[in-house]
Design goal:
Radius of gyration: 26 Å
Oligomer: single chain
Structural class: alpha/beta
């Protein structure tokens, strides 16, 4: 069995990575209720179920389900034009998928579990009797699937399976098949009602196929090819037809088996063509995905020259030169979306060239960032290290964990299905999957594990990290390095003790996280660098070394003048995603292949404020509107949508804080930081002369901020 494919199947779907995070979705819904009131929210909860809306459909839902609630008619327009929805065509709107999930939870909480079924019946009736619907066939099909998921989930599973099979069999390459993308997205949105299906095997088949396809579409296709062929070379007896892989389409399996041959044929075909520079739009679309770090080094741009220091070089020097044989713990922080993951992947590559075995993993896949404890982090680390060394045929089988799993199964009294023969990573994966799904189960597990934290840490160090280090060095490796990404996303949630979840984990328990018997780099929340306990953080978790902060790429200097070098690097970042095979020197000549004028590219870079994820998000907004060259008008639409999204959640007190930041270019304390920086209202910049703050340029152009500036 291919471990790579099994890992994809059992991991969270990459489709959801394209949506708002659950935390941001909740924030958007709360902001909507705060602005318009509970009655508006009541209508939004009902209207969310069909996903794709017209003003007429929202009006009919209002009349049929909420006529007695005395909701003002203006609520229909307010909802459609709010950040909870996004226009996709003239008179046509889509509810953001994560926001939809939050609204449907609220719907059941206030109206009971039967209300979604009533809405589904209404939607089915509406689609059957509305003969003059002027909607694209794929939109009508999505709405029919939504209704069917509640009313007849078995039939929907059958229909989706048949459509997927026919779509795959008609194409040589399963990527970019419209039906495949539609099924993958809709299946994720309908996960809850489809859990009621009796066709569990068929449902699992759908999920497995679509998660592998999503990995190819939204992930790194070349990396997938490399891993599969690497596994086939290691284990000649591998047969992709066992276990979970029995539930993969034969067409998809055949395509995966022929990846290497397909790649070579494509290379031969391309080399035979007359060399010309053309923009490959599907590849460009994937390269613009703002939720994915740069894994293809062709896309990497080194911004260290304008960020005041080369942080990754510092990390590497500390590990490889200063303390290669003694464990180190280093801290990395910055705005979410500013490029930390991309830089950590660069560090991984650099350290591997120095002979280290590097385990990089995104902790948010295993851990619920709204509810985290130290034992969650330690178990996640143990699982990922075990999985990584097992893939190199290093078998450890630590005895402590074998006994621990037996005790956990007895304590929790639920069938987790631990196996004494299974690898450590598989058993830990079963724990993290179960507990991430159930907060109640997570609390019970912590009650059992918390008194044993010291024993767990000791076992990880002695039986796992220590033995792994020894085995790796016997194979000529320089040592083991852990890069623990995404811990900066831990929620700033107050605990009963009065401390925040972030302070509890990284400050109060920081000394335990630092005691791992290998080199570790943790990403931590930027808020902690503004805490009154920042020195304690530095000593307990950083071992006396303060966190390294990755600032924004400057688009202007502190005095307001354009930052020429920063802007040039941002232009390169955009253009290299369009033409990764071209030299940096040639990219300026190709701007008109992507944008209508060079000024449109400059506008994109400048309005991003040097926040890399925001820049890619705006660029993706252009890609989704039209084919290149992208017009200035398309860019302004993307900017406007982003501005509306931000404006909806800012209150009067926050506007006043923003105005003060613009005047003074400083933040006073951690409270201001949590309000403004976590919400992406304010950006941090650094250069050789120091640190300063500035308002997000998209907000600076809003009418509200302009009126404040004139006072």
């Amino acid at each position: 069995m291919s471990k790579t494919l099994e890992e994809i199947i059992t991991s969270p779907s990459l489709v959801r990575e394209q949506w708002l995070s659950p935390e941001l979705a909740v924030r958007e819904v709360l902001a909507f209720e705060r602005r318009f009131g509970a009655k508006h929210l009541m209508l939004a909860c009902h209207a969310a179920l069909p996903l794709i809306l017209t003003p007429e459909l929202v009006n009919l839902i209002h009349l049929n389900f909420l006529e007695e609630e005395q909701i003002p008619w203006v609520a229909e327009v307010d909802f459609l034009l709010s950040p909870l929805c996004r226009p996709i065509d003239e008179g046509l709107y889509e509810v953001e998928p994560s926001v939809r999930e939050v609204l449907l939870v609220e719907l059941e909480n206030h109206f009971g579990f039967e209300r979604p079924f009533g809405l589904a019946k209404f939607l089915k009736f509406y689609l059957a009797h509305k003969s003059d619907l002027k909607l694209r066939s794929e939109i009508i099909r999505t709405q029919r699937w939504i209704a069917q998921a509640y009313l007849d989930p078995d039939k929907l599973v059958e229909d989706m399976t048949n459509l997927l099979e026919s779509s795959l069999s008609e194409k040589d390459n399963p990527l970019y098949v419209p039906e495949t993308i539609q099924i993958a997205t809709t299946l994720e949105m309908l996960a809850e009602p489809l859990e009621q299906t009796n066709l569990l095997t068929e449902y699992r088949y759908l999920i497995n196929n679509l998660r592998v396809l999503a990995q190819m579409l939204y992930g790194n296709e070349e990396e997938l090819k490399r891993k599969i062929h690497q596994e086939q070379e290691i284990e000649d007896q591998t047969k992709m037809g066992e276990g979970n892989l029995k539930l993969l389409s034969p067409v998809l399996l055949q395509w995966l088996e022929n990846l290497e041959e397909t790649t070579e044929l494509r290379k031969d075909s391309e080399s035979a063509k007359i060399q010309s520079v053309t923009l490959d739009l599907p590849i460009f679309y994937k390269a613009c995905n703002p939720s994915q770090p740069v894994k293809n080094q062709q896309y990497y741009i080194d911004f260290s020259s304008v960020r005041s220091s080369d942080i990754i070089k510092t990390f590497k020097h500390h590990i490889a030169v200063i303390s290669p044989d003694k464990p180190t713990c280093q801290l990395f922080t910055g705005h979410i979306g500013c490029g930390k993951s991309t830089e950590l992947l660069r560090l991984k590559s650099d350290l591997e060239q120095e002979g280290f075995h590097v385990v990089y993993f995104e902790s948010s896949y295993d851990i619920d960032m709204a509810d985290v404890d130290v034992t969650d982090i330690l178990l996640s680390i143990a699982g990922k290290v075990s999985e990584s060394v097992e893939s190199n045929n290093i078998r450890l089988h630590p005895g402590f964990f074998a006994n621990l799993f037996t005790e956990i199964a007895g304590f929790l009294q639920i069938p987790i299905g631990f196996s004494t023969e299974a690898e450590l990573s598989i058993n830990i994966g079963k724990i993290t999957t179960k507990t991430k799904e159930s907060p109640k189960l997570r609390r019970r597990l912590r009650q059992y594990l918390e008194p044993r934290t010291s024993l767990i840490l000791h076992s990880i160090n002695q039986e796992l990290l220590g033995k792994a280090n020894t085995a790796l060095k016997q194979r000529g490796k320089a040592g083991l390095v852990l890069l623990v990404d995404n811990l900066d996303r831990v929620d700033f949630r107050p605990l009963p003790s009065g401390r925040s979840q972030q302070e509890y984990l990284f400050i109060d328990r920081g000394d335990q996280l630092r005691k791992l018997n290998c080199h570790v780099v943790y990403t931590i929340p930027l808020e902690l660098t503004f805490s009154n306990d920042c020195e304690i953080l530095k000593d307990r978790l950083g071992g006396g070394i303060p966190p390294k902060v990755l600032p924004m790429v400057p688009v202007k200097r502190q005095n307001g003048e354009e930052h020429t070098e920063g802007m040039e690097l941002l232009r390169q970042m955009v253009m290299v995603r369009a033409f990764p095979d071209e030299s940096l020197e040639k990219l300026p000549e190709l701007i008109l292949e992507v944008f209508d004028t060079p000024e449109t590219l400059d506008r994109l870079c400048s309005i991003s404020g040097g926040h890399l994820r925001n820049l890619l998000g705006l660029l993706l907004g252009c890609v989704m509107q039209d084919d290149p060259p992208f017009s200035r008008e398309a860019l302004e639409v993307a900017i406007r949508d982003r501005r509306y999204y931000l404006l909806s959640s800012i209150d009067d007190d926050e506007w006043e804080l923003l105005f003060q930041v613009m005047k003074k270019q400083t933040l006073r304390d951690d409270i201001e930081h949590n309000i403004l920086m976590r919400s992406m209202f304010v950006f941090e910049y650094r250069d050789l002369h120091g640190q300063w703050f500035d308002i997000n340029p998209i907000l600076a152009e809003s009418r509200k901020f302009q009126s404040l500036s004139r006072k």
